[in-house]
Specification:
transmembrane; globular; Growth Hormone, Chain: A; MFS transporter; 80% helix; mainly alpha
Length: 415
């Protein structure tokens, strides 16, 4: 445990790591308590919002935070200290989350749905600034070989807290669970305020070349051309695109396990599974990512593929098992263990693979391209999901398997 807590770092680096872990733990816990795949979908379903509005939640959240990054990254690069960009983005997310909770409390179903989708779009846009700036701050304050552990530790802490918070939902009022969830979302907005405060206290060094303004900001075109000209970056984008299956397949487990049960207990089962998956696996994934981010991506993709194929076999060959209320949350837990490895691995890889503003270019270009791919895949997958969620799970599981192989062949992120 002592080695995992980064005892070899300098005092200033330890303090920065502690503050980053605290900030990320707050925002990740907030993500769980306001997750569009589970909590917001459940909340709006209970309010009676139309299915057309519900279908927009996940695409708006997933693509909305990544699509703008190619266009805002040049503005982010104007800031010598990127921690202020993160803090501002976190405050923006807090305002949007508070708007969602307030809308659920005071608006009729249709209006509440529209306000929440609009606020979710604003939340995603604010998050795009945090996504870019957080990797710059991490790269400046924490040396290579420890960055994966920072992410792993924050994931583990937030996972434990998320599981505890999910269990606590069981004591919520059964007669007015919808209002209780609305207040929960409203209160969760304060977690982003705490995260902004913690990040603002990080002592962030500025590289001399950036301080003197010697590195001109890359244009949008030059960032996109990196995919063509930078072979290592191109292979990373391909691997990450295939490994999207580990993210996009998660709601399918919720759909398959719903079984017409819309009780608070059913929701809690999936929330606990998500928290336990993060809390129990992130230590190991973080250490592996520090050795090689590509290996964490590869093994995570393999785990997700194995669980996806196993879930299909259970649904097809053991329908009795698939009807048990614990089976799908358990499979969801195992699948999210794999997803945690993919997520930590690709974040560590992209931070370690480049320095300075080149890192910002990598992050913004890859995230914007991935957002476009998510929209395309979502449009193609929608009719397949309507026909058979299991068929779509099979496709995503194949993606995970092939993506894991692609990630294992990535060039080393550290020279």
């Amino acid at each position: 445990m002592r080695s995992f807590l980064m005892s070899d770092l300098q005092p200033s680096q330890k303090r920065a790591a502690a503050l980053i872990v605290a900030a990320q733990s707050c925002t990740k816990l907030g993500d769980v308590l306001t997750n569009p795949k589970t909590v917001l979908t459940w909340l709006l379903s209970s309010l009676g919002t139309s299915g057309a509005v519900l279908s927009m939640l996940v695409p708006v959240r997933e693509s909305g935070s990544m699509l703008p990054q190619l266009f805002v990254s040049g503005w982010v690069q104007r800031f010598q200290r990127r921690k202020w960009v993160f803090a501002g983005g976190a405050i923006g997310q807090a305002v949007c989350i508070a708007s969602m909770g307030a809308a659920a409390l005071v608006c009729p179903p249709t209006a509440a749905g529209v306000v929440i989708v609009v606020a979710l779009a604003g939340f995603a846009f604010a998050r795009s600034f945090c996504s870019i700036s957080s990797k710059d701050v991490l790269g400046r304050t924490i040396p290579k070989g420890f960055r994966g552990r920072v992410g792993g530790l924050s994931n583990a802490i937030s996972g434990v807290l998320s599981a505890g918070a999910a269990v606590a939902l069981l004591v919520g009022p059964e007669r007015d669970a919808t209002r209780f969830l609305a207040w929960l979302v409203l209160g969760a907005s304060m977690l982003w305020v705490l995260g902004a405060a913690a990040y603002a206290m990080v002592k962030e060094p500025v590289p001399e070349s950036e301080e003197s303004g010697e590195q001109p900001a890359a244009t949008i075109g030059s960032r996109l051309r990196m995919v063509r000209d930078d072979r290592r970056f191109r292979r990373f984008v391909i691997a990450r695109s295939l490994l999207l299956g580990s993210s996009l397949a998660s709601p399918l487990f919720v759909v398959l396990g719903h079984g017409g049960n819309a009780s608070m207990g059913a929701l809690v089962g999936f929330l606990v599974a998500s928290g336990v998956a993060s809390g129990t696996s992130s230590f190991l994934w973080g250490k592996l990512a520090d050795r090689a981010g590509r290996l964490a991506m590869a093994f995570g993709g393999a785990v997700a593929a194995f669980v996806g194929f196993s879930a299909m076999l259970i649904a097809w060959r053991a329908p009795g098992w698939s009807g048990h209320f614990l089976v799908w949350p358990f499979l969801y837990l195992l699948f999210n263990i794999g997803y945690a490895g993919v997520r930590l691995g690709r974040k560590t890889w992209v931070v370690d693979a480049a320095e300075g503003d080149r890192r910002t270019d990598y992050v913004s270009a890859s995230n914007t391209l991935i957002a476009v791919i998510i929209l395309i895949v979502g449009a193609l997958a929608s009719p397949l999901q309507a026909w058979s969620p299991l068929a779509l799970l099979a496709v995503y599981s194949v993606f995970c398997a092939v993506g894991g192989l692609a990630a294992s062949g990535l060039a080393a992120e550290r020279d």
